[in-house]
Structure formats: structure tokens, C-alpha cells
């Protein structure tokens, strides 16, 4: 074997408890590694698609970037669901997971991120760079960010109201 040849070490047969060569914790760990790789692949695909579009030279024109991104997103969702169904510990990169935080907390985390993004984009667009070619993309991103924030706030209100009704109290009732 030369140094340029890829090497693979199979660690899945170590530390088994049932004699089959696998344990449930190890399987979930492997699924989590697969999800990490899938998220990396999705970001690489996104970057390649953006680079191809920015370059605009027709190279890679037949490459199905859009379809691959949709498929990558679906695969990442499938892997994340499998981890949650397998009682995996919370996934920090996925907002902690619904199993421990709930929908309300996940929506709150998204609001925090989109609010930060809105602030950053606003700061960039308020600067003196009026003739920069990236301003159109930044303005579009800011508009989309604000639309998403409106949607997130609406969904948060619905979830909070539904939660309050289920618990027998109306929003604000316990405030006095």
C-alpha cells in the first residue's frame, strides 16, 4: 500500500455487547457520523452551485445542482429523524432536537438566528458600499430573512397558544 492509496479501518466490530458485532449506541453513532457527512456534502453542493452560477461560463451547466440540493436536504432530514427515533442524545447542530426542547424552543432558536442574520444584513446594507455587486444578493437575503421571521413569529404564537389551551390556561392568565 502506498501513501496515496485510501485506507479504511472498520471500527464497527469493536466494543460489542450482543455478540453480533454491533450495539445500538454504536449504530446511532454511525448514523450521526453519516448525518455529519451528509450536511458537509450538502454545504459543498451549495458552494459548488453558487460558484457555478457566479462564474457563469457554462461549465458544469449540465450538473443538476438544484436536484442534488433537494435530495441532500431530504437525506439529511431522514437521517436526523432516524437519530431522533433511535433515542439519540440531542443533536446540537440541529437545534437540540425535538425530543428534549420541543417545537416552541426550536422555533425560538430559529428566531434568534434569523434575527441575528437580519441585523448583520442590515448593517452590511447600511454601509457606504452603494455600487457593490453583492448588494442585490444581500438585499434579497434580507427580504427573505424578514419573511421567514414573520412566519416564525406566527408559528410561535400558534404553538404557545395551543400549549396554553392544552394546559388549561390562556396566554397571560397567570400574569395576574
Give a structural overview.
65% of the residues lie in helices and 0% in strands. It contains 4 helices and no strands. It has 2 domains: 10-89; 94-176, no CATH class. The chain has 176 residues and is mostly helical.
Brief characterization of the structure:
The chain has 176 residues and is mainly α. It has 4 helices and no strands.
Secondary structure elements and pairings:
Layout: H1 24-55, H2 65-85, H3 98-126, H4 135-167
Helix pairs in contact: 1-2, 3-4
Assembly state? single chain
The total of beta strands comes to 0
Distance between the termini: 75 Å
Number of domains as seen in the coordinates:
2
Mean pLDDT: 77
Return the structural class: mainly alpha
Order of helices and strands: HHHH
Can you count the helices?
4
* Shape field: flat
Strand content: under 5%
Rg, alpha carbons: 22 Å
List keywords for this structure.
single chain, 176 residues, mainly alpha, 2 domains, 0% strand, flat
